Amino acid sequence: MGPLEPNVPELILGLIVFFLLFAVLGKVILPRIERTLAERHDKTDGGLVRAEAARAEAERIRDEFQAELSAARHEAAAIRQTAAEEGAALIAALRAEGLQQREQLVAEVHVQLAADKVLAEAELREDVIKVATELASRVVGEPLTDLPSTRAIAEEYRNRATV
């Protein structure tokens, strides 16, 4: 048995052990090695991809936030403008109502003053006629209050004095 003539049972046993070892390596060890290499690759390259995706998502969220913030600012400005316009309209309406009430009060006061003036003139006229009649009675020496023409004379004198 030489190197050119191998021992057949050893050769068969060697081939069986070789193929068994090859199968174990191919089925058990090699998948574990590939899985470990894939995990390493995922940790390095996948981490970059995930970081890029996270950055893109953060940018998208920031853009959405900026758009919402801009819309909210625009809406707030519109609300302030509307409130200012409503306030100005309300102030104008209240001012107009106040002016109307003031004019109404002034007109009522003028009417009341005119009525008071007429009443005061009438009372004053009566008092003047009484005083004038008393003075005339003292000057003449006779009572003039009983004469029916006393009032007519006083009225005629007053009318001439006012003209």
Q: How is the secondary structure organized here?
A:
Layout (H helix, E strand, L loop, with lengths): L7 H133 L8 H14 L1
Describe the structure.
The chain contains 2 helices and no strands. The N and C termini lie far apart (174 Å). The chain has helices at 8-140, 149-162. The mean pLDDT is 86. It has one domain. By secondary structure, it is mostly helical. 90% of the residues lie in helices and 0% in strands. The longest helix is centred in the middle third of the chain and has 133 residues, at 8-140.
Short description:
With 163 residues, the chain is mainly α. 90% of the residues lie in helices and 0% in strands.
List keywords for this structure.
163 residues; rod-shaped; single chain; mainly alpha; 2 helices
